Amino acid sequence: MPGSICDVLPAVAALLGVPGAPDRLGAADRVAHVDRVAVVLVDGMGWHLLPELAADAPLLAAVLNGAVGSLDQLTCTFPSTTPTSLVSLGTGAQPGEHGVLGFTLNVPGTDRVLNHIRWRDDPPHTQWQPLPTWFERLTHAGVSARVVLPEWFVGSGLTAAAYRGAQLCPTRSADDYPQRVADELRAAPGLVYGYTADLDTAAHVFGIGSPQWRAAASRVDVLLSRLVAELPPTAALLVTADHGGLNVPADARIDLDTDPRLTAGVRLVAGEPRVRYLHTVSGAAPDVLAAWTEVLDGWAVVRSREEAMTTGIFGTVNPRNLPRIGDVVVTCTGHTAILATGHEPPETAQLIGFHGGATAAETMIPLIYFGASRDGIR
């Protein structure tokens, strides 16, 4: 079984000597003694996309060929979406435990849908996501933990929920981002975390395989190549992702807000186009489940909340997080999407690339090691 995104930061903590930190990935078998580690998350760089990326990314091509670095396969958590994955990375916990169970979620007891990307301070991040992060654990163990992020991420609820405890190092759009990460890594021992959304943005807006996506792949490769070139002798660089993705053609989209069979009995819609959480009016859940199962036959797997939980897809679900999951959970299969034009911004329906579901193309992610390895190869 592949390791999980939840295992990455505990393994880094183990490399940095934090007592009791579990190295379930065997990172110590890949990396020689280090006193500093950079972790870079490339948003949208799924495992299945690596061969296609390699055409425009010489460093990634060299990794795939075994010429440099070391490559492992991991899984992200479900739903395969950025907010869920970032908090799973930061806490080392499954979504059912940390509670960030999707791109958007109903705030229980209200008719409000919380968009985790736009989330600021309501609800308070320590209440919505109360678990400790590995950045906090590193700091408490006396190990420096720094996060290099664009300045507009600072102050967001998602940043606090995922990276709480880290020293935030904001950057501006005009800054040399890879240089800033490299400078932070050289400045002091410990963990330095970096993030880039370039590839994922191009996939959403222009599609996987588009010229814009390939240009983004080239830029990501330049970023990683510069970091590898500037690694100090006692440093390692770990590169991973939060999810993969796929393109959804126009004829494989259903707009729930244009079909009365799909709106009947539904009080509130959350999630995203590949995974929908349907919160139903009182007593309507069985009818909604039956209607959606019939209409979406061959398009999606439709389950009650209880059925979805028994699959273990969310991990163990803390009772406080149960109401955040819809009464009905709809997970797309194949290259399909369920739009909700009456509930979401119009830009969502215009996207080409999607993720969030449980397919291998969406959930399998890489973990690449660079640095002083056990066999002496960087």
Task: Provide structural commentary.
Pfam families: Phosphodiest. GO terms for molecular function: hydrolase activity. InterPro entries: Alkaline_phosphatase_core_sf (IPR017850), Phosphodiest/P_Trfase (IPR002591). This is Type I phosphodiesterase / nucleotide pyrophosphatase. There is one protein chain. This protein is an alpha/beta fold and 378 residues long. The protein folds into 2 domains: 5-93 and 131-246 and 359-371, Alkaline Phosphatase, subunit A (3-Layer(aba) Sandwich); 250-351, Gyrase A, domain 2, CATH 3.30.1360. It contains 17 helices and 18 strands. Strand 6 (145-150), helix 9 (157-163) and strand 7 (167-171) form a beta-alpha-beta unit. The protein is globular.
Question: How do the helices and strands line up, and which of them pair or pack?
Answer:
Blueprint: E1 3-4, H1 8-15, H2 27-30, E2 36-42, H3 50-54, H4 58-64, E3 70-75, H5 82-91, H6 95-98, E4 104-106, E5 113-115, H7 125-128, H8 134-140, E6 145-150, H9 157-163, E7 167-171, H10 177-187, E8 190-196, H11 198-206, H12 211-229, E9 235-240, E10 246-247, E11 253-255, H13 260-263, E12 266-272, E13 275-280, H14 285-295, E14 300-304, H15 305-310, E15 328-332, E16 337-339, H16 346-350, E17 353-354, H17 360-363, E18 364-371
Parallel strand pairs: 1-3, 2-8, 2-9, 6-7, 6-8, 11-16
Antiparallel strand pairs: 3-18, 4-5, 9-18, 10-17, 12-13, 13-15, 14-15
Helix pairs in contact: 5-9, 10-12, 11-12
